[in-house]
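Long-time lurker. I teach an intro course on protein structure, and each term I like to show students one example going from raw sequence to a predicted 3D structure in token notation. This year I'd like something fresh instead of my usual example. Would anyone be willing to generate the tokens for the chain below so I can use it in lecture? Attribution to the forum is fine with me.
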Amino acid sequence: MKKWLTALALGMALTLAQAADTDTAAAQAQAQKADATAQASGFKIRPVDDAWRAALPRNAEAATQAYMDRLPAEVVAKSDAYYTGGYWLQLWDLLLGLAVAVLMMSGGRAARVRDWAMRVGKGPVRRDMLVGAVYVAASTVLTLPLAVYEGWWREQAYGMSTQTLQAWLGEAVLIQGFNMLLMALVVAGLYALMRRTGARWWIWGTAGGMAVLIVIVAISPVLIEPAFNTYKPVEDGPVKSAVLQMAHANGVPVDNVYVFDASRQTTRVSANVAGLFGSAAVRLNDNLLRRTSEPEIRAVMGHELGHYVMNHVAKTMAMLTLVLFVGFATVQWLLGRLLARFASATGVSRVDDVAGLPMLMAVFSVFFALATPINNSIMRVQEAEADQFGLNLSREPHGFAEAQLRIVEYRKADPGAVEEFIFFHHPSTRHRVYDAMRWREAMGTP
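-- Reply from a regular --
Happy to contribute to a lecture. Here you go:
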């Protein structure tokens, strides 16, 4: 364990040092490296010109198929293998998490951690914070091999990671540092609620859980994300002017557009518009800025602005409140029964005993795994809404379709209906290209 933690600490120090030294020339070199990595991985879309686009059939289905035909068979096969392999990883993550919970609960291990934390913390709140932090640390170490495979080795194998293992480990330990702090605070608050509210703790737990989620969404762009990437204003030019024009036309309160150096970690293109309570920040990554055309950027940023204008964050919070309410109710119903059944083996019999934290987290994990189609459907519907908003705003159906082909690098292009319903948090590439071509057909644009 000490060897792993030492390696992680060294990696974090190097990562932070690299982030501090980032400048414009380095950012450009990183973006070029990301582009070279993507090309070396074999991800290539058959290029076309404006004449090809102008000659596309007016029929939306025929035009969609013409776009899909530009994906070489080997690209589709690799994309399908990557994305469907992720389904199995979701299962292995769940099973390994359950195994960690069993290991920590059996033999009274969690109870001994609680007793140690009580001696050190000298009070229930500090005790619960220590137990939460220890749970994160132990889970991190026990699941580290799968995390390395899933987060770094596999991304390298599919040509999407631009990081060394050392750099990836550095970011991983920084993430877990945030997780330990957050878990310590959340566990202390949750078990204080349990002791204070008794059998109705799960109702108050839902309210507390949503409050924590709102705080995370609010502080993440300001405190957490800048720890991993450098954010700088986009240089003055047509891209910046176009994005700001679309933002101002829809009342988005921004006066700048920011680019962040995602090419330090990945070849993927992405963007977002972050902000709550009347604030907003328009950000796109350097892969999108340097590897795509202006029509693609306009289409993508129109989509992201759509999320903000249509208040998708607030709507998602409202819907997730219902999901979390059912989740807490499920935990309340099941956790007491499990603790009573295994009290002699675990040394824990009460729901409000913090030593039962691993079992509580295991029940939550199973619930949210079963709720995957519901959560994905919530997100997928909002993504489709943002697609329509972005098309109407940017008026770039071809730019939007081109951007969707690029996303095939890491997302299966043409899944079955049931597969898309269960596993996809965004509409599939075929559906999104079809929506763009349907807009083109209806609007009579070239």
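Some talking points for your students: The chain has a mean pLDDT of 91. The beta strands are 231-233, 257-260, 271-274, 281-285.
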